Amino acid sequence: MQYRSTRGGLSPCGFEDILLGGLAPDGGLVVPERYPQITPETLQSWRGKSYPELAFEVLRPFIDCWPETTLQALIAKTYTRQVFGSAEITPLRQLEPGLFLLELSNGPTLAFKDVAMQLLGNFFEHALLRRNRQLNVLGATSGDTGSAAEHALRGKRGVRVFMLSPHGRMSAFQTAQMYSLLDANIFNIALDGVFDEAQDLVKAVSADLEFKRRYAIGTVNSINWARVLAQVVYYVKAYLAATQAEGEQTPQEVTFSVPSGNFGNVLAGHIARQMGLPIRRLVVATNENNVLDEFFRTGRYRVRAPRETRATSSPSMDISKASNFERFIYDWTGADAQRVCALWTQLEREGSFDLAADPCWPQVRGKFGFVSGASNHALRLQTIREVHARYGRLVDTHTADGIAVAQAWREPGVAMICLETAQAVKFSESIHEALGILPSLPAGMADPALRAQRFYRMPRDLGLLRHYIQAQVEGAAC
Fold this sequence. Notes:
By secondary structure, this protein is α/β, with parallel strands linked by helices. It has a domain of 226 residues: Rossmann fold (3-Layer(aba) Sandwich), CATH 3.40.50. Helix 3 packs across helix 4, helix 11 packs across helix 12 and helix 16 crosses helix 17. The two termini are 39 Å apart.
C-alpha cells in the first residue's frame, strides 16, 4: 500500500514513512492510494474473531511493510484485558431495542483516544528501534488526545512528547491527568489560547521542513493516518456485534452517531463505509461550536475566529478547524488534489468555502451518508439525566451530545450505535450539575488531581515554541 497527500505534493511512500512523518511536506494530510474492500463474505468470516484478530484483518492491507507476524505481535501486545479491562476491548451495550452504546473509554485514560493511541505507541517504538531513530512528537489537545498520547508514549524508547493544550479550557480531571505525568520524555505546554490556535502552531512547525527534519518532528493528533486507521477497527467490531444473526444474505445496515470536533473519529467511520461496511448514516454530533453541523446542513464550511470559539461543558469538541475534514473533502472531490489545494487556499484567505452550488453536493448524504446536528449545555444535562434514569448509565457530556443528536436520525429496523467518548468521571462538574452526584473513579485508579503537576505555560508564539523544543532536544543530547 502506498500513501500520498490530499494536496498532491507527496511522492508515493510506504506506511512506516508516513507513520513517523505527520503532515505531508505540502501541508496536506496523508491518505492511502485506495481503500481495500470488505465483502459480505469477508464480514461473515470475521464473526467470532477476537478484537486483536479482527484488528489484524482490518489493518493488514494498509500495513504491508512489516511481516505479518510482527503486525500480529504489536496488535496482541496492545489490546489486552489488562489494559482495557475486558477481552472485548470495546464492548457494545444495548440500551433498548435498536439503540446501542459503544464503550470506547475503558483504557488507561478513560477516553476513546486510548484505543488508537496505545497501538500508535507500540508502532512508534517498533519503527524507531528498527531504524535506530529518535522522534519528537508534537501534538495539540482539547482534552483527551494529550493524556492518551502521553500515557501511550511515556517511557517509550526513542520518543519525546511535546503536547500543547489550551490553558484553563480542559476539565480539572483532564488537566491533572496530563500535567501529573512527570516522565522525562513528557513535556506539557499550557498555551494561552484555544485549541485551534494550538493546532495552528503544530501545523506551522510541521510546515517548516528544515526544522521538522532537524528535530525529527512527528505527530499523534488525528493528523497522523495511523491513528485514524486504528479507529476503523471498532466500527467493524460494533457492526458485527450489533448484527449477530448468522447467514445474512443481505448485510444489515447500521447508523453511527459520533460526537465530533476534529473529525477524526467520524472520519474512521467514513473510511469503514468506503471499505464496504454496511453503514447507512454517519451522524456528526457537534456542540455549540457547530462548524461541522453547519457544513453538513448547508454546504458552507466556515471556520470561527478564536474569540468566537465557545468554551462549553463538552470541551474536547470546542474546535472550529477540523483537521481531518480535509481527508473527507479529498474523497468527496474524487481524489482531486488540485481542487482540495484550491479550497484550502480559499479557506486560509477568506475563512470559508461553500460547496452547496456544486452538482456533487448531494453526494454528502447520498454516496457518503453524512447527516448532522448540534447540542447545547441544557440538552446535554437533560440527556445525562434521561440516560441515567432510563438505562441506569452515567454518560459524559460528549457522549450526551452524540445521544441527543442521534434521536432525530433513528429509523425503524436500523440499529443506532452511539459512540461513547469518555467516562463520566472526567467531567464530574457537569455530572454533579445534572444529577447532584459525583461519579466514582474506576476501581484501582488513583485520583490524578492528588499528584504533583508539571507544565510550562506559553504565549501563542511560534518562535518561542521552536526554541522550547530545540532547548529540550539539544539539552538531552548533551
